[in-house]
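[#protein-structures] MJ: dropping TetR family transcriptional regulator here for a structure pass
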Amino acid sequence: MTPRTPAPELRERILAAAAAMLAENPTARLSVRAVAQRADISTGSLRHVFPTQRELIDAVVAAIAALEGAQQPDEALSDTSRPAVDRLIEQLRGVLATSLSGDGAREQLRAALASPEPSSADDDSAPTLALERLALHQIAGWITALRHETAGDETPDFACTPEEGARFLSTVVSGLVTDHLIPGSLSRMAFTDSTLRIAATAVLARRA
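AK: finished. structure tokens for TetR family transcriptional regulator:
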């Protein structure tokens, strides 16, 4: 009888198999069956560790992001000697730089623009969307931390929730990524800093 693989080792084995599939093809569909086959385990064993495909994808993306340093260190965020808006802008610049790094950014934009139709509802577990969920959670955390710092003991009424603010900032950064990648972008890059400042100021602003 083959000895059972301990859960922590099995988890790492599954994540390594899925990461290898994405390294070979960034648009690969990480189905439970395909990942289990790559890891040389049964689908039942995989589902014991990751009951749903979405849990599997989120874990894979989080592991890759941590490995590549995509989750930026928050030391700058806690530097209270600088204005909160400036610190949020610095974090967003890091997100923008990460999005533009590597040779794949332009190809990903081309693929998105060439897509004949939007993804179907059952694509909710796609790696791209999992990475987006991770980024939104991180940005919402930045907003919450900075708001708490500036509010003190007060309970101010902000113009949006941290989650709404994160979605807004993510949309702004996505637009800037497109601006930097499409032809003629040099003339528009000068507006990057002012755009980030307007967006960061808006999400940290209290309701009038």
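MJ: nice. Residues 83 and 96 are 20 Å apart (CA to CA).
AK: one more thing. Residues 76-204 form one domain.
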